[in-house]
Please model this.
Amino acid sequence: MAAAIEVSEVSKTFRIPHEQRTFFKEYFLHPFRRPSYERNEALKAVTFSVESGEFFGVIGPNGSGKSTLLRILAGIYVPDSGRVRVRGLLSPFIELGVGFNPELSARDNIRMNGTLAGLTKRELEAKFDDILGFSELERFVDQKLKNYSSGMLVRLAYSIAIQIPFDVLLLDEVLAVGDEAFQEKCFATFDSFKEEGKTVVFVSHALDLMERFCDRCLLLQSGMVQALGSPHEVADLYRERVLVG
Amino acid sequence: MTGIAYYLRVLRVVGAIDFKAKYTDAALGYVWSLVKPLAYFAVLWLVFAHLLLTANQTDDFTVFLLIGILLFLFFIDAVSAMLPSIVDGGATLRRLAFPPIMIPLSASVAIGITFCVNVSAFAVFAAIQRVEPRIEWLLVVPLLAELYLFTVGLGLLLSALYVRFRDVGQVWELAAQLLFFASAIFYPIGILPDWAQKVAFLNPFVQVMQDIRHVVLGGASGPNDLTAGDVFAGAGGRLIPISIVVLVFVAALVFFRREGRYFAERL
Ligand SMILES: Nc1ncnc2c1ncn2[C@@H]1O[C@H](COP(=O)(O)OP(=O)(O)OP(=O)(O)O)[C@@H](O)[C@H]1O
Ligand SMILES: [Mg+2]
Model:
């Protein structure tokens, strides 16, 4: 079966500025001095591939590069080097959201996100009720998102992410702030994605969920692939290497 | 996600949402989009048609003034809305992959809607003033297109620069205030000395405004009905502000494309 995602030798370095140069003044005062930076290698030559229809887990400590990796897969960040190839339509859910404007109502945010993600007017109308229905936020549809609770935001964001037509779904910490009921709902969708043969990349800190849902699991540490294999083995390795120290 | 249909759909939907959002919490809603130019008009008309008698220098001072105000507010409001749009739209850019140019473009569309509302009101006013419609008025359309191109170019450039340098906001705010006094909105450009006229016409906004006044009023504003061709000696001179538009627009697209790849990580 063809790989849904191929990542080869992907590296990404961020610069941590030692002085903030967001004002002209610094340029006028020191036109020739290059600002001093510390290099932060968030991803170092990361290589792996995900089979079509696979439920693929990514684990790793805070700051290990998981969200950065997902952003590169989604085309939000540009890698410094290496190649990324994703086959099919992709829907991202990254760091607790899909990109909301807090000053707009849920209604406008759904329309804005859906349209930016490529839905036509008719598709959007057809999906609109499903999105609200799944998130169970019908009552709050015209309330501005800045007045939503964080759990409500995640419900809405997840509902949008899974209603956009996709072959590959990226999920970054979907379950972090949702309540029990919502988690059960998510698990049910995970099962149906597996049945439908969708490819899912799942980032979470909950190792038991990795073991429950994933076909394979990748362990990232300091931007490097430490292990790739069955979820049990990788989770055990993670427990022993990282958690114990 | 690259087809023209996608672009138009996003501009329509997001532009309309932006436009609506500006007025949702205002009791008078869309009425405000009319109040702003009217308030400018009332004050400037009172001062210059009655107290300082600039009206003597032009026959149709009311229409002359209204054209200046409507165009100026569109130009300034559109650039001012585009400028912070990338930074303000950071949450979306950091979570969804789409062409970042959609954000400032949608902001310009929202201001464009306001402009259209105002122009409709202006048309009613012109009818009451019994300004005879003429076939040359069609020239206004390409002139507005030129102004839109210039506005979008400047807005894209500033919005991308603003991601790196927050000073750009201050610079633009000051520039907008100075331009209001320097751009012959409420006085005939002919009262400026020659050199100042030449400087003023380097700004494509002034060229478009003067051309539209010329077209709509049909030369009725007399010796002060100057256009770029008059000021830069000869028809070739008309090309100067137009080349500036092309230059700004192309530079903006190139710069925006280059910077746009990194907006998400810099926000
Ligand atoms: N836009 C950015 N600019 C600078 N540094 C960044 C940027 N995005 C991420 N980083 C850095 O890259 C590293 C990896 O961050 P990332 O968000 O990918 O971690 P993570 O594995 O998702 O962590 P967590 O489990 O806390 O979500 C961090 O050191 C972070 O500071
Ligand atoms: Mg993360």
Notes: Chain A touches chain B through 33 residues (CB under 8 Å). The mean pLDDT of chain A is 91.
